[in-house]
Amino acid sequence: MLKMSKSTKKKHFLFDFDNTIVDTNEYNKLIFSKTLLKYDVKVSDDYINEFFAKHIGNTIREIYTFIVKELDKELSVDELLETDKTMQISNVSNVKIINGFFELLERLIEERKTLHIYTNRRMDTLQPILKNLGLLKYFSNIVSCVDVGINKPDIDCLGSLKMDILNNSDYVYIGDSDVDAEFAKNLGIDYFFIDRYSEEPFRELFKLV
Length: 209
What we know:
Blueprint: E1 12-15, E2 22-23, H1 25-38, H2 45-54, H3 60-71, H4 77-90, E3 96-97, H5 101-110, E4 114-119, H6 123-133, E5 141-144, H7 145-148, H8 162-165, E6 171-175, H9 178-187, E7 190-193
Parallel strand pairs: 1-4, 1-6, 4-5, 6-7
Antiparallel strand pairs: 2-3
Helix pairs in contact: 1-4, 3-4
């Protein structure tokens, strides 16, 4: 989905992270399953697939809170999150870039565009992935809304940054969920939907560069 404004060329490209820049769908499910298993909670692959499909766009804290309630287990969400973090950091080499992103990145740099990440992923698991993939240096701003304490789609997570972005046709937000679409709508800027299953998920985005 691409909602175009009068200005089709953009100067500033704002990205979500999970399943927008990197394909973490199966990776997150695997970490989730292993985390639960460490506390002797075993769930089927089908259950996890269905559970994650219901909670696209939710934060990792929300996901563990939901699962503890749904399974009626006496588990500490904070302990689950700490275990999840440790597993995420030790397995960053398994996170892969979505097909075509490097080509898009090369073009954005060539055209002197600014790149930003605004995500609901925690910074303590975000930075190791970016660093491992060699992407950290390309982004002017990286904001973990979860760490700020105000989750997307609430634009207040951007703090003073939002004043430059609000209703500015030079900006576009790129994401993969309804939460991301609402975030862009709240900012009053264009939204580009990434379908990681597409053969060329970024093809139409090149038109905005």
